[in-house]
Amino acid sequence: MQTVELTEPGVFEHRERDRPDPGPGEVLVRMAHVGICGSDVHYYEHGRIGDYVVEDPLILGHESAGEVAAVGDGVTGFEPGDEVTLEPGVPCGECARCRAGEYNLCPDVEFMATPPDHGAFAEYVAWDADFAYELPENVSTRAGALCEPLSVAIHATRRADVELGDSVLVSGAGPIGMLVGEAVRAAGAGSVLVADVVEAKLDRAAAYGATETVNAAEESLTDAVDEFTDGGGVDVVVEASGAAASISSTVDAVRRGGTVVCIGLSAEDEIPVETNEIVDKELDFKGSFRFRNTYDDAVSLLERGAVDVERIIDFEMPMSDLTAAFERAKEPDVVKGMVTIGE
Ligand SMILES: NC(=O)C1=CN([C@@H]2O[C@H](COP(=O)(O)OP(=O)(O)OC[C@H]3O[C@@H](n4cnc5c(N)ncnc54)[C@H](O)[C@@H]3O)[C@@H](O)[C@H]2O)C=CC1
Ligand SMILES: CC(=O)[C@H](N)C(=O)O
């Protein structure tokens, strides 16, 4: 089968590997669509993310969907021809965090496209059937692949305990922020203010249903939030940029007794946050890491048309042009690139 492997920063090699056989409890999936995530682009450009270093050729891609080609021993509920999306992290199932149900925090998770674990820019992937989810007829593999970033958004929305009518600031209008906007609205948020520093992203957010937008490079975020909430602060802030200035400003933007959820990962070692404000305003200040138990709900939201993921896609290119697709994905106004695998 064809794969595309990152051999050094900026270099993809097209390779031929043996098609895997599905092991016991696994499904073999013929890949159809794989989204390009910011972390894929980061590995492509730098060959590492923090302590995760690409030392051997690595297949990237963890936002995937395709068609079941074969099932391994003991697999029930799937048959060849079923369309599925794959949850990219398979936890150990035995550690304290897995036993507590917080399997997204498993330290021994096998996560696609995180060295040394391969991802999905390949014709076939054999994957644990417990982490495969059937797509209904009205959900395409193109949309199904985006259950991964949608899951990040659903998990953050749950961490934020969004309530009916809440006002929410989403800071960062990349794919994650865009889908957080969709997820909080599906959870009942009454109004969503979206902040970014790139006008084209804000235009996209506005077209995507943001109540208001603010360019944090040109206007004071505090003033914009004051205007948006008549001075009270938003009920919930979801930080989805990873920018230091944005993270620092979350505690000012939120109301007393409100909730801040940080998704964004920063390149900085230290970012100033007013901890006295967290105490004085009695804030819930939380992190949100990947997702757990979100895929069934992500598929259901897509099936019911309660969220729209396809609108974040800027372009679709074939795996044979993966270098060109990654170069395009690097452009600042691109939100999401999608790759087609096979014919
Ligand atoms: N916690 C988790 O499980 C996950 C975390 N992430 C992280 O979440 C963040 C968002 O992911 P993506 O949407 O893929 O990233 P992205 O880089 O595509 O989007 C970030 C957006 O933030 C904007 N931005 C930059 N400075 C800003 C500022 N001062 N104020 C407001 N917006 C600003 C950028 O213009 C961009 O549109 C990244 O830091 C990523 O590493 C991504 C996936 C999972
Ligand atoms: C941080 C990412 O982009 C990725 N989805 C991951 O969870 O590793």
From TrEMBL:
InterPro entries documented for this protein: ADH-like_C (IPR013149), ADH-like_N (IPR013154), ADH_Zn_CS (IPR002328), ER (IPR020843), GroES-like_sf (IPR011032), NAD(P)-bd_dom_sf (IPR036291), SDH-like (IPR045306)
Basic and acidic residues composition-biased segments: 11-21
Keywords, in A-Z order: Metal-binding, Oxidoreductase, Zinc
Cofactor: Zn(2+)
Domain Enoyl reductase (ER), first and last residues per copy: 10-339
Positions of region (Disordered): 1-25
Coiled-coil ranges per UniProt: none
Annotated family: Belongs to the zinc-containing alcohol dehydrogenase family.
Protein name, UniProt field: NAD(P)-dependent alcohol dehydrogenase
Species, as recorded: Halogeometricum salsisoli
